[in-house]
């Protein structure tokens, strides 16, 4: 009988600790530092810092997201890239928290914004959402935010031409309970490849990294998977929003050959308001040429 009581006690304590940790992870974020080294960046005279933000989903860290803004300022980025899903694409849901936060970013560094599936469905379905997305975009553009929608911008950084492209695949690629196939040709149909020394691709869904590699991306920045909701030590993320278990890329930096993907665990949650062993994160990326390493 004592053994049973002991087991129940231990399990109860473990459950309470897990709940407390899950609650803590909803309140805080960490700053993740990733270093990307490439010979294709040898034209840089010194490293360039990028702050990468994704999947905020209207989350606020302090009034007006003051804690998050403070962390971005302390990082002193040369560039801020947004990977999408900063708001919640739900009928009747206000975009005010995302707007208030993102509108302050151009005062820190140039901002380039790629849509996630939430922004994309609001844009593609005016019969459901009206002109809400268009108003959100208009107000941010007036604040100096640059939107990339299946388009690119070529930046000259020292003696290095860095092209930043943002991909919007069809909404069907986000369908739940289904594995969708995306090819290099599908990516090319959205964004034509052009000459550059280094190619950064903002692609919200990391599941299709093989296609992004074949297209020619040197660095892919993704989000969408919220770190897999729960992360298992030594394994990684548990599940995708499409209900596919154990995604290959879910919340880490992975280099394959000379190509790299960085997947943000996101800053907020949506639908499944849970994180466990999976802290929200803001990512600081250090771009360096091989000669500097």
UniProtKB/TrEMBL annotation:
GO terms for cellular component: membrane. InterPro entries: Calcineurin-like_PHP, Metallo-depent_PP-like, Metallophosphoesterase_sf. GO terms for molecular function: metal ion binding; UDP-2,3-diacylglucosamine hydrolase activity. Pfam families: Metallophos (PF00149). One of its GO terms (biological process) is lipid A biosynthetic process. Gene3D superfamilies: 3.60.21.10. Keywords: Hydrolase, Metal-binding. Residues 49-227 form the Calcineurin-like phosphoesterase domain. PANTHER family: PHOSPHODIESTERASE YAEI, TRANSMEMBRANE PROTEIN WITH METALLOPHOSPHOESTERASE DOMAIN-RELATED. This is Calcineurin-like phosphoesterase domain-containing protein.
């Amino acid at each position: 009988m004592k053994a049973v009581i002991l087991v129940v006690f231990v399990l109860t304590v473990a459950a309470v600790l897990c709940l407390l940790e899950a609650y803590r992870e909803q309140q805080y974020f960490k700053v993740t530092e990733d270093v990307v080294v490439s010979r294709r960046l040898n034209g840089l005279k010194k490293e360039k810092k990028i702050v990468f933000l994704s999947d905020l989903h209207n989350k606020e860290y302090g009034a007006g997201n003051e804690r998050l803004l403070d962390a971005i300022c302390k990082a002193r980025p040369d560039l801020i890239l947004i990977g999408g899903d900063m708001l919640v694409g739900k009928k009747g849901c206000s975009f005010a928290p995302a707007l208030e936060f993102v509108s302050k970013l151009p005062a820190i560094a140039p901002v380039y914004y790629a849509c996630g599936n939430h922004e994309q469905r609001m844009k593609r379905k005016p019969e459901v959402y009206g002109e809400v997305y268009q108003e959100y975009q208009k107000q941010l553009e007036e604040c100096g935010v640059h939107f990339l929608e299946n388009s690119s911008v070529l930046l000259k950084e020292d003696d290095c031409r860095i092209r930043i492209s943002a991909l919007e695949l069809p909404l069907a690629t986000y369908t739940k309970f289904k594995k969708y196939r995306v090819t290099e040709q599908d990516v090319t149909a959205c964004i034509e490849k052009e000459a550059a020394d280094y190619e950064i691709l903002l692609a919200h869904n990391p599941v299709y990294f093989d296609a992004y590699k074949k297209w020619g991306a040197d660095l892919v920045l993704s989000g969408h998977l919220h770190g897999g909701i729960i992360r298992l030590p030594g394994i990684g993320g548990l599940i995708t929003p499409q209900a596919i278990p154990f995604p290959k890329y879910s919340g880490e930096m992975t280099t394959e050959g000379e190509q790299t993907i960085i997947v943000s665990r996101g800053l907020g949650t949506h639908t499944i308001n849970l994180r466990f062993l999976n802290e929200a994160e803001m990512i600081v990326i250090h771009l360096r040429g091989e000669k500097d390493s």
